[in-house]
Specification:
Length: 113
């Protein structure tokens, strides 16, 4: 299996954050971890967001991978794989009593950057 590379840590935000981007599928705003000195992505959820509470109420660690499949096999999937703004395929799982995100970049950049 490939060596994992940490992409970012995700934390829930409760107030608007500078540089937020909207993700319609998740009904949440996210910031770019590439713009944060500690690689933190802040996620702020709309009241009607369908994101599971386990994600909203826990931080997550996100890894860059070449293929999501091997990392989610036989795992508890919280959000199945989905494409974000045409630049990354992402999936959220629950393991080791924590939220993990695996990201397969389709192109370099973060949203329109």
């Amino acid at each position: 299996m490939q060596q994992l590379v940490i992409d970012h840590i995700g934390l829930t935000a409760y107030e608007p954050m500078p540089g937020e981007n909207w993700i319609e599928q998740s009904r949440c705003w996210v910031t770019s971890p590439r713009d944060h000195p500690e690689s933190i992505e802040f996620l702020r959820y709309a009241p009607d967001s369908t994101v599971p509470d386990r994600i909203k109420n826990n931080m997550h660690v996100a890894y860059r991978v070449d293929d999501i499949g091997p990392w989610i096999k036989d795992q508890e999937i919280l959000i199945p794989p989905f494409i974000v703004a045409g630049f990354v395929e992402a999936v959220f799982i629950w393991k080791h009593d924590a939220v993990f995100e695996y990201m397969r970049y389709l192109k370099d950049g973060w949203f329109e950057k």
